[in-house]
Amino acid sequence: MLSRRDALLNTFRWVASSVATMACALVADRAQATIPRGPVLEERLLVGLRVKTQSDKEFIAKIVALVEQGVLPVSLVDSTYFWARGKASKNLRLQNNPMVYFRPGLVARAARLGIKL
Q: pTM for the whole thing?
């Protein structure tokens, strides 16, 4: 059986860890809310996917607009972006064009969520 001192110490540790966890969650929410997603996301997609054609630029603009409106989850866009870059890097012929994988991949994944691109 725990002594009174040990019981109080355990209670204090539990309260301290709970407060620290809540503080971290609040800080993370504020940090995420203040990050401007629009221009940063658009620039990252344009440069990282090596967009060349006007239709691809319009597609990226549409994707960024849907993310800003909250229709398309940014996590879906990010995961598809990294998947397309990785897939393109393994194919020597398409190494400089990850957009070939990104566009159909994102359209298919968004369709599974009921979002038409």
A: 0.65
| Chain segment 75-110, per-residue pLDDT in tens | 999 999 999 999 988 887 767 889 999 999 999 999
Query: Would you put residue 36 in left (φ > 0), alpha (ψ -120 to 50) or beta?
Result: beta
DSSP string, 46-101: HHHTT--SHHHHHHHHHHHHHHHHTSS-HHHHHHHHHHHHHHHHH-GGGTT-THHH
Using the 8-state DSSP alphabet, how is residue 2 labeled?
-
Q: How would you class 98 by CB atoms within 10 Å of its CB: exposed for 0-12, middle for 13-18, buried for 19 or more?
A: buried
